[in-house]
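ESCALATION

Customer reports they have been waiting on this structure for their group meeting. Please prioritize. Original submission:
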Amino acid sequence: MANRLKSYGFWSLLLGLLLAGSACEKKMSVPAYIHVDSASLVTNYAAQGSASSNITDVWVTVDGKNIGVYELPATIPVLASGDVKVQLQAGIKKNGIASLRPIYPFYTSYICYPQLERRRCDTLRPSFSYHTTVSFDFKDNFEDAGVKFTAVDSSKGMSKSGDNRDLLVIAGEPNHYAGMITLGPGENYFEVETNSLLERHRTYTFMELDYCMSENMEVGIYYQLNGHNIQSPICGVYRTGKPNERNWRKIYINLTEAVNGNSLVSKYKVYFKAVKSVSDSAVFLFDNIKIVNM
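Update from on-call: job pushed to the front of the queue and completed.
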């Protein structure tokens, strides 16, 4: 009888521990939620140019633990509650490619300390800025006199448009002009390059570009090597609509490998070129072009 009681007590204790553990595990598995609808960029316009951005993802860390990468908008489950440290890093589509989505190294992290509660959803509105170590080798927002691109050989050159329907409007910024290239009947291609040579840096180098165009375009660099002008294509930028449509997009183009691929290269130029695939007109609009490095 005594042995049966001891046995019963043992199994009751074990069952109790299992149930307590299950309840604890269940409690810990109930998440809090963080919602991020979109992310923005804040800049010093005079020094850093436009706050135009295309942040497609956030890389999420909570209390030092990596939670994952989420495409925006996103509702993110977090197995933590109370006061926590949330760190978000901005993700972009490198060269406009959906399968290449790294952290953009030129933007700072967004850090906040929300008080999370299980089953509750807290909304974050992250804004990012450029690291103080970022330098801007080239900026053209087309608000100054002239343009910073030159036609190559007999190509059609770049001009500016002040037509309201051609402009990319960003609140709080001057939005009077955009760069423009039009190809009419008998004009089948264009190729333009930056007016000045740009210094090579042994670090990350990206071009940021707002664009709206009716034909695909190639972006690459030119550099001098042993007295020869070498052309190095980097990526294609795809049409955004018909010639009469104005669908602006932004792309982050990785120049790093092309610029740093040859140690003998010290300076380079960036070029844009396109060939018209239709017989009627083609329109190419540009704004807020930056070349950044750190």
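Sent to customer with the following note: The first strand starts at residue 32 and ends at 36.
Escalation resolved.
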